[in-house]
């Protein structure tokens, strides 16, 4: 028979503390988020250790690292807290016109730059008191599949370090609510007058020096996988950490890059760059907004999903050039 736990003797605030320390991996940053002192958070971690009969978080020179037991419990604790938040949220209906909540959205910068303008307009018109925070997401370097490359993001959204994540993944675990925002593909981007514009054969393309957007500096991407399938390769002369910086570099160099079509169409004129169709198939993919299903009891989060869906529909796919 399973032993019954007397919850009246358990401080459930410790689960909130667990969630924040797990997300931040740092006692000081967790203390800032919780508006507590470092010593109070450290004391709380000590109580967590006794409650869960596990070290929970191990100190390192750069912060703390969760134990295997803490990683195992993180998803269950996140779901428990979301259910509690859902109960409380339903007690006071969400009104976007008067709400002063802050939502955190994680996305690759090429995606957030596309959906942000219409999303900000929706907030301005219908929810002027809402605040937004954007986090730049990127795939884990070295993974061989798209799904594995974004596993860390799945873990983060479950830990509730952000409210919504937007990812270019179709195989999303069933424990997440999913909303398709739009479909995307890639085009080649060069400066005005670049020689590739008049001779965009595969041979010429492979001869060029290339730029790749990689937050980690990993000089390998999906284009290289496509080239390998054709028995070809290219030289990655430069990696940069985000798409907007890529446009700035491309405008003043002979480098060429494959960038998201909608992002390029929206910002190319500001940097004086041109875009062309690629001489090889680069595929299409969908951008999906995700959140834990348990979190969707929150009327505010439902409003945010609807606003993101409308923002995605507002970004119509540009015609070929």
Architecture blueprint of SSEs:
Elements: H1 13-24, H2 27-34, H3 38-52, E1 57-60, E2 63-66, H4 68-91, E3 102-107, H5 109-126, E4 131-136, H6 146-149, H7 151-158, E5 164-167, E6 176-191, H8 202-207, E7 209-213, H9 222-229, E8 235-240, H10 243-250, E9 257-260, H11 261-271, E10 273-276, E11 284-292, H12 299-314
Helix pairs in contact: 1-2, 1-3, 1-4, 2-3, 5-12
Structure write-up:
The chain has 321 residues and is α/β, with parallel strands linked by helices. The protein folds into two domains: 85 residues, Arc Repressor Mutant, subunit A; 227 residues, D-Maltodextrin-Binding Protein, domain 2 (3-Layer(aba) Sandwich), CATH 3.40.190.290. 43% of the residues lie in helices and 21% in strands. It contains twelve helices and eleven strands. The strands form three sheets. Strands 3, 4, 5, 6, 9, 10 and 11 form a seven-stranded mixed sheet that branches. A two-stranded antiparallel sheet has the order 1-2. Strand 1 and strand 2 form a beta hairpin. Helix 1 packs across helix 2, helix 1 crosses helix 3 and helix 5 packs across helix 12. The longest helix is centred in the N-terminal third of the chain and has 24 residues. The radius of gyration is 23 Å and the shape is globular. The model has no long low-confidence stretch (mean pLDDT 88).
Features of the shown structure:
321 residues, Arc Repressor Mutant, subunit A, globular, alpha/beta, 2 domains, 21% strand, single chain
Name the assembly state.
Answer: single chain
* Count of extended strands: 11
Could you tell me the mean pLDDT? 88
Regions with pLDDT < 50 over 5+ consecutive residues?
none
Tertiary shape = globular
SS summary, helix count: 12
Termini separation (Å)?
Answer: 69 Å
Largest sheet: 7 strands, mixed
Structural class comes to alpha/beta
Helical coverage, percent range: 40-55%
The fraction of residues in strands falls at 15-25%
CATH architecture heading of the largest domain: 3-Layer(aba) Sandwich
Number of domains: 2
Order of helices and strands: HHHEEHEHEHHEEHEHEHEHEEH
